Amino acid sequence: MLRRARIGLLLAAVCASAIGSPLVLPTAADVRAAREALAAAEVADGPESAPAAAALERLAQALIVAAPPGAEAETLARRAVAIRRAAGERSLLAPSLIVFAHALMRQGKMADARAPLEEALRIAEKARDGTGTADALYDLAKVDFHLSDYPASRAAAERSVALREKSLGPDDLATGESLEVLGSALTYLGEYHRAGETFRRALTVLEHRLGPDDPRIALTLGNYGTVAWFEGNYSEARSLYARTLAIAEQARGPKDPMVASALVNVANASVRMGDYAAARGDYDRALAISEEISGPTSPDVAILLINYGVTLEELGEIRRADAAYRRALAILEPLDSEYADELSNLLLNMGALATALRDPHAALPLLERAKALAEKTLEAGNPELALHLSGIAAVQLELGNVEAARPLAEQALALQPDPHIDAMQALQVLARIALQRGDVGQAR
Known about the structure:
By secondary structure, the chain is mostly helical. The chain is built from 21 helices and no strands. The longest helix is centred in the middle third of the chain and has 19 residues.
């Protein structure tokens, strides 16, 4: 009856930075030089001049990738757009709009970034600028992805891929980046086979252009591994996640959030393969990193603790599993509404553990709370409710409450009919009730 918390895969990590990663990050000296160039242009040519606009764009670009998210790059880019627009320089306005959009995306203002990108796209298309069109489409695909409009993201990414393959070639770095965004959109749309082929193509391009150990390769490997996961190929998924982990450790050190995420993915794949001992070691490391980075009361730590507890149960380490669940409960209970699904799964696991330990009095309130939370997040008649109903039915039967157990088991069976695995417990309850009545034929 165990139900894990939502698994934190690396899917969509390709879009995490929103604007991609330059080959060479600007240094503090580069930013300082860009500021000095802007000041010089404003003095020599005026603050509303074309040279000033170009200097504003360069400084904004440097700040976007070199600094933590902030409003300065947005302000600078907005000024540059205003200068380009006032001068009627449409050929220069489109690139300036893209810089402005990048400044917004860097701050997570995805919805606000759409308008400048759409304007840049219209300008590029009217000018028959294939490169500018592909660039705007690539950024629009990322914005739509973040806004959960996966069909629009796929359409924009497909056009970007086609244009970049035609103008730059199929093995250009920009083509590989467009393929990566397309693969993410396809994955969320459930087109796993095509997503896998797309990520394979992207990986080939990026490895050729960047080398097999570049940190950006780790993101592609993680997304590719997630597709393998969804297709049920856990061995391949674990292999790809392991490569992600090795690159992340080499590039970022042993105590980085990306390392923790990769460890969780490797551990989750190990669990699906039945390799619980390997999973425990990876969960141990991931938990230590997450606690150090996010603090011991972070919701991310709680979700990891739930998955860790399930693994400990499978290894027979019941006391450690119970301790992991109780820690997770202490973290998630104050966040009831925000993490209702995770809390419901946790309570279900705790109830199942109490049931296995022959403590039905402890199990019943846990399972009833889990069901109440699940009913808030799931529609009536959702098959997932069967697991909650059958669990409570089994406990009621252990407590001798036959009349309470029977309707619960029947409801569970109606939601998730035989031969689904979630129906087995309900069938067992009904069979035991029939045996208690002496109806051996019905029990069979």
